[in-house]
Amino acid sequence: MKRREFLTRLTGGAVAAGLAGSAGGLGAAANLAPQPEAGAKLARLAVSTWSLHNYFESTREKEFNLSGRMLELLELPELIADRYKVHHLEACAPHFASTEPSYLKEVKAQLERAHSQVVNMPVDIEEFWTKGGLSDTDSAVRQKAVAGGKKWIDVAAVIGSEAVRCDPGRMNPKGLTPTVESYKELAAYGKSKGVQVIIENHGGVGSEHPEELVKLFEMVGADNFGALPDFANFPDNATAERGLRLLFPHAHVICHAKGLEFDAQGRETKFDFPKCVEISKQAGFKGVYSIEYEGSGDPYVGVQRVLDELVKYL
After folding, report:
1. Which domain holds residue 263?
2. Which parts of the chain have pLDDT scores under 70?
3. pLDDT for residue 234
4. Sign of the C-alpha dihedral, residues 284, 194, 53, 26?
């Protein structure tokens, strides 16, 4: 389920406490641990909590029927570090049980305990998709979206996340002024807090016409504002190659290494994964590759398969 589809089904509520354990959960960690020769490459990787979104009450899909206990964000730093030897996380906003200071203090403590860091927070909130969100021509609608973004920039500053992903809503490529105004305000606020503001190519924005995002980056002109390239959020391989070549020069924090479907040899079949990695390297990308598994089957295994592909090609 794509994030925008999720927003139409968002029911909110606190993250559930752990239920019954299963082999699809933590128990199978030992036989999936990465080999030592992966070495320093693991330091370039993150795992997105979206990969495990069906184990969070706030984002669980009704049709998901695999067994496994439910998760809380507080346990993710240790879970990811122990199972995958990865110490970067991408923590999705719907997976925070609260934004109260006491809860955020707990999140920070769990990160420190696992020697981990949140590198980015995808901010999927209702304000960004109400009417035109950050791109609405109505300044009142736009300001509500900006205020929502600022709230999560504050959260990022508290827990030490380098970036927040705030997408533009219904951006009009022929009338970018409202969008530019919103991002100038968000980028300025983010800079005051030491937080980057980034945009992903998804939800109808930048997927078929990535040059529209490049134009936006140039018009805003802030040094803490840029791209979150996603390997698979394009209609075909040709557009992906063109789009990634356009977006990676504007990506300074993170990209999404998507996993969709693997063959028996563990190779991604839905898009040209090695080519995507090669384009990032050619662009001189120095950021983090965040694993975002969205395929069928056990997502814990899916994350491992994406990790293995990244270690192979980085």
Report:
1. 3-7+42-313
2. 1-38
3. 96
4. positive
